Each structure stands twice: as C-alpha cells, then as structure tokens.
TrEMBL record:
This is Peptidase M30, hyicolysin. Residues 1-24 form the signal peptide. Keywords: Signal.
Length: 444
C-alpha cells in the first residue's frame, strides 16, 4: 500500500473514531459515555405522586451513560447534570460488580432474556409532591415478559439524585428481579412480605447506610409488623381501608423486616446462609409455611407465631446488639382508633403486664412476659386470607384484634412509653409493580 493511501486510511479511521459515541474507558473495567454524544432511548416509566400515593405513567428520553461487565446505566436526560456525576457512576458500578457474585450466590441467577448479559438500570426522578419519603426504586415483573418498547429484559428503576444509598437500592431491586424470575415465573410466587424480607437482607450485606436506617426505624417503632406489609385493613367504609400507624407507617414494615432477617442470621452463624436457603426454598401452600420449612431445620419453632415471639424476646434480651423495644403508648393517635389498638395478623406490641391483665393467651392472641421488665408482648396469630393473600398487604377486618391497653398506673414505673415519630428526613421505600398495580397507573 502506498504511503499516501496509508495516510488517508489513518485519517479516515480517525474521523470514524471521533464520530463513535463511546468515549475512552474511564477505568479499566467501566466504559463511561459522553452525555453529549451517546445513545438515547425513549422509555415509559412510572413516577409516584406522594400526595395521593398513586403511580403516574411518564415518557422520557434516557441517555446511555455507562456500562460495565454486567450492567448498563441509562439516565433520564434532565437529570444528567444535576442528578448524577461521572465519579458517582463509576464508584457504584465498580462496587456493583464487586458485590454481584455474592448476590447471585445467595439469591439466585439473573435471567438474560434480552441476550446482552446485563441488567439495565433506568435512573430518573421518579417522585413528585415529595414531603419526606419518596420512592427510592421499583421493579416491574412484566418487564421480563413485555419489556420496554417491546424489548423484554432485565430493567430496574432507581431514583435520582444519587446518594449514599443508591448502591443499596440497586442490590435491593435486583433481588426482586431475581425473585420474580426464579419464583413467580416458575410458578412458585412468594408473598410480598417474604419477598421484601429477602430484599431487606441485601442491605444487611451490601448497604450499611440502609441497614442503619432500618435499625433507627425499628428503635423508634412501638408496633412490630411486616406480615401485613402495607399495615392497613379493610373496614367496609367507602374509603375501604384503615391505616395503622399513620403517615409513613409502611416504614415500620421495612424496619421490622430488616431486623427480623438480621436476627435470623445471628441465630444461624452470621454468614447469610439462611438467606440463601430461604431464597432457594421449594414452593409451599403459603409463604409462611415455606419459611417455616426452612427455619425448622435450624432449631427454630415450627410455627411463625412462636418464631416471632422468640424474635421479640431475643431483642429484649440483647441478642442482637444496638436494638431496643418500647411499650406502645395507647393514647398515640397513630395507633388508637376509636379507643382501640388494632392488632393486624402476625403483628406484635409490647405493654405493661400488671396494668393489662385482660390481655391473655386466648383465642387469636398469644402473650409472653419479657423477663423482669414488667412488660409482655402480644401477637395476633391470625393469617391473611382470601383475596388479599397473594399480596398479603391488606388485612380483612375479621382477622384484626382490637386491643384495649392501659398505661402503667404507677407514675414511678420504670416503663418508658414512646410514640412512633421518625425524624423529618427521607427514608428508602420501594415498590414491586404487579399486574394489578399496572391497571391503576394513571396516564399523564
């Protein structure tokens, strides 16, 4: 080849390379794309209206920002300069790749429906009308089947701007995706309370900020519950449901769920193997039975009610450091509904033993004294039944126990009462958008 031809060939290749939308890799294992010269795709996604808790469909242009061995990051274009930074993307992608083998080992294989071998993270501001806590992320199982723009794949949605919990959100939502593929799509669906418990366990492994947040929520709570995930029950009124715990009550489910999983791990060697056994467990008639089939092999009780009572007793005894229990204040308007404390299925509260002799182990209630504290714990041993069982997020009123609880009469009592009152800050919550949820997504 003549020298002039070689020279022209070099110039031609240079021009092509300048037009290529991929910039030079920022680091050896991650490719970072120039936001001003990259692939743009239009995706429909959902945002949460935190005023009425509804989900709204929205369409946006997403720019391909970064890519690693097992993930692709797309960012909604309005958030490029204010919601995310190059350093931030590289940091959490590198950690994601580092954590991924352990997540797969514990929770199961990730499908590769689209054949690209990567999880696609769609990052955007997915909230409107936020006061304190907005939606941190979500997973939509139908994406594995119908996909985006007719392209099925492994899509996960993460809220922007990024923060110290972004990586934790990614690992949390990834468990939901793995769970959907290995359970829901294989005909052995899991109730949301157990699905969320597994996702909460990811933070105990990969995200100290979220784990610490959950400890704070638990230590602030006076109502211990995650089985009826949304902490609401039907009451036959036009409004349809009654929330227990007031605004932000679902955070109690996250807090209780996280601490329950932490306790299980502490009782089984502290190496997260119990999470793996639950995630890979065979199907059972109910998620409760499925969990008990695993726990009974490790010396736990054979029924969930006793296991939950043991959990609270161990927290009281300091088995899991840094945690505390508080007696429920029966005058707290968040829980006092028409003079009663509604106790949802598998929910527990702590009360003064001497001042409440009427609360006994009978019918659907089981009680247990908590050592020499002067306190006892009571659980409603009912199960969620009927149309709400699949989601296990709403209890039927028929399965709710209404408690009359009195405060300690002795002003010098050592019993300290606490009201559920979280600091005014943002907490992480998420959502698995089911087929039923999709029917209620509003069009913008």
């Amino acid at each position: 080849m003549k020298k002039s031809h070689i020279f022209l060939f070099i110039i031609f290749m240079f021009i092509i390379s300048c037009g290529n939308k991929v910039t030079a890799p920022s680091v050896s294992d991650i490719t970072y794309y120039d936001p001003n010269n990259t692939i743009i795709k239009t995706y429909t996604y959902s945002i949460k209206d935190n005023k009425d808790q509804s989900m709204i469909a929205k369409e946006g242009a997403f720019k391909k920002i970064a890519e690693s061995a097992n993930a692709i990051i797309y960012v909604e274009e309005s958030q490029i300069d204010k919601g995310i930074t190059k350093a931030g993307v590289i940091s959490f992608l590198r950690k994601f790749e580092n954590y991924l083998p352990r997540e797969i080992e514990i929770y199961g294989e990730i499908p590769d429906i689209d054949g690209n071998g990567k999880v696609i993270f769609l990052m955007a501001d997915i909230n409107t009308n936020v006061t304190t806590t907005g939606l941190g992320g979500y997973f939509q199982p139908s994406d594995l089947i119908n996909g985006k723009n007719g392209e099925p794949g492994e899509y996960l949605h993460v809220n922007l701007p990024v923060s110290d919990i972004t990586l934790g959100i990614m690992m949390h939502e990834l468990q939901h995706l793995i769970n959907a593929y290995n359970n829901l799509m294989q005909g052995k669906s899991m109730d949301i309370w157990l699905n969320e418990a597994l996702s909460e366990s990811t933070s105990l492994i990969f995200s100290e900020p979220i784990a610490k947040e959950r400890e704070y929520i638990f230590n602030t709570s006076t109502y211990y519950s995650f089985y009826t995930w949304n902490l609401v029950y039907t009451d036959g009124t036009p409004q349809g449901t009654v929330p227990v715990g007031g605004y932000g009550n679902i955070l109690m489910s996250y807090g209780s769920s996280s601490i329950f999983m932490k306790w299980l791990d502490s009782k089984t060697g502290g190496k997260q193997e119990i999470y793996k056994e639950i995630a890979h467990s065979p199907s059972a008639p109910t998620s409760e039975q499925r969990l008990m089939n695993v726990l009974s092999k490790h010396g736990f009780a054979n029924d969930m009610d006793t296991v939950l009572l043991d959990w609270i007793a161990d927290i009281n005894n300091g088995v899991v450091p840094g945690l505390k229990l508080s007696a429920i204040d029966p005058t707290d308007p968040k829980f006092n509904i028409n003079g009663k404390i509604p106790l949802l299925p598998k929910s527990l509260v702590v009360y003064s033993t001497a001042d409440n002799p009427q609360i006994t182990t009978s019918g659907r209630l089981e009680t247990r004294p908590l050592g020499k504290t002067g306190l006892s714990v009571v659980i409603n041993n009912s199960e969620n039944q009927g149309q709400n069982l699949a989601a296990a997020v709403i209890a039927d009123k028929a399965n709710v126990e209404e408690l009359t609880i009195k405060k300690a009469a002795n002003l010098n009592s050592s019993i300290k009462y606490q009201r559920f009152n979280l600091q005014d800050r943002e907490y992480f919550i998420d959502k698995v958008i089911t087929e039923e949820d999709e029917k209620n997504i509003k069009k913008q």
